[in-house]
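One-letter codes give the sequence; each number marks local geometry. A record appears below:


***
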Amino acid sequence: MTLCVTGVELIPVSVVEHDRRFLILYDDLVDDKFITLGHLYLTIENNTPEPIVIFTSTGTAIVGHEQVDTELWSNASLGGTVYPGASKSGDVLFGLRESRTDQITKIRYVLDAARSEDYDSLTDEQYDLDITW
């Protein structure tokens, strides 16, 4: 299985609060006193001969000294079963309370490894991605 970050977007909450297009999408995050919204765009490709199951909603984003779970705001269509030779793309959202967009140059995204369709572990390893710009 291949997990690839295809894009990163960081949005100041002040922009979201004053733009109806953003507010509709991110209303739940704005209410929680975040100052920055993070958006990771991901593609998962199953290059194994069997279906795999992955849960992007159980990931963790680490930015500076802040660690946040992505469970509440993961794109539901991204995770789940991925069939052999197929790929899925989607996004994972997270909110930051202390890191402003101009302070961020690196995001670490940690995600449990894929499982078989019977939910058996395929490996003990996690996906641990450092995204730097």
Notes: The CA atoms of residues 16 and 26 lie 7 Å apart. The beta strands are 2-12, 36-45, 52-54, 60-63, 66-69, 80-82, 87-96, 106-112, 115-116, 126-132.
